[in-house]
Amino acid sequence: MIRLFVLLTCLWPNLAISEVTFADRSNSVSAPHIYDGGWEHFVGGGTAIFDCNADGKLDIFAAGGSEKSHLYENQITQDEWHLRDTGFDPGVHAIGAYPMDFDSDGIMDLFILRVGENKIFKGVGDCKFADAPRGWGFIPPDRWSTAFSATWEPGNDWPTLAVGNYVDRTNSDGPFGACDVNELYRPSGHAYLERQDLHPGFCALSILFSDWSRSGHADLRLSNDRHYYVVGGSEQMYRLNQERFLDESDGWESISIWGMGIASHDITGDLRPDVYLTSMADQLMQLSTKDGFTAAPYSIGTYAQRPFVGDDGRPSTGWHAVFEDIDNDGRQDLFVTKGNVDQMPSNAMRDPNNLMMQNADGVFHEVADIAGIATTERSRGAGVADLDNDGRLDIVVVNRRAGLEVYQNTTLDTGNWVSITPRQAGPNTFAVGSWIEVRNETNRRQTKEVTIGGGHASGIAGPAHFGLGAHDTAEVRILWPNGTTSNWTAVEINRRASVWPTRTDEIEIRYSE
What we know:
By secondary structure, the protein is mainly beta. Helix content is 3%, strand content 38%. Strands 6, 7, 8, 9, 10, 11, 12, 13 and 32 form a 9-stranded antiparallel beta sheet that branches. Strands 5-4-3-2-33 form a 5-stranded mixed beta sheet, with no helix packed on it. A hairpin with a 5-residue loop joins strand 19 (274-278) and strand 20 (284-289). It is globular and about 60 Å long.
């Protein structure tokens, strides 16, 4: 498999990238934020990054747990970083959040995971929100929800929602062996009239709808925490169009880990999504095959099982993970948050976050300490996105019992890039379930799927970012959710663009200033 990486990455011209660096902009928030709380907030601590006022800048929501949550409006300029607290308050006990456009009005809404009843907030513009209308019919139970994902099934105007739940707090025999069931909400027209409970539940901390097999339909992957299911549980895959969990007869391998977060991206170039699962001790990278998934070799450099700096040799605890191209060299890098659950003596207490850069040979190497982001707070959810619209991806980290971290990517001499947002009229305005492909003159393709979910209690609704290295031309095409595929179309480099389908197989590209 490593040789496959070499064959793919050699198609990129050599590009001398400077040392990766970040500047700490945490003091740019106008009101301090902290994620805190007792046992029910040992997990969670998510962020949602999205444009809440249609000004072309990505704003930041941070869940507060037992403390106040914050929504920061992005007022960053070329000269100053400033994130203004809007005053939006979804109530206490927020675990995390995922942005999406439920009703396809072009304005982002928010799904808030909570200890208690989950909430949907309808975006009304200008970073303001209202409780979801009664007509939406969303009536959640009182549970401890820790994971979320959504997709549009064929023929539906509204999305199908999945909620992952942790320990059943009402079970007097718990917490061990007391994992709650998970939930599926399918729309009836423009409302959610019924809830389907998914059995068995194994304490899901991350879930993600994706077309894992590139077969044209989304399945739901669930990453579960064996700390509480103890025995008899495993990672799960739920086949949505057949309404069942996969098992060994489907080729599904039963794996038990302390599942915390899911990251997905095609890093091998076979146009199928590979998956990275955070855990306690080893973080598991699984590479896609035509028959399913196989564990990546240890030599790939992503297992990150212990702190890479400091003198604490105990196992790490991984939470949020995300693949993105930090230096725009055309290769996906990997950011992972780390942090002790609370005072767990078996695991490292000072556990730095990881930033693993992908080499030309497909092997990853650690740079978080050099880059200035190897903090050792109890990190949880995170987001990697271009906050200042300079073509370099920045980082936001939510910490348990410590302040919000915001980092500006200041790496010099990065490669070229394009930033693509698929859009369409009618239902599913942001084309969830579509695949974006970008290629250069060598026909080397990068691909990204538009999804909602995964990570650890944290979601992003923003442009898909593609590093181009030294290439100064690029073409894009979209595999739309309805199964049609656009023609390859030239796109201007170092620009942000929305891409719309036309009545033919062409696409209309609209550039942002």
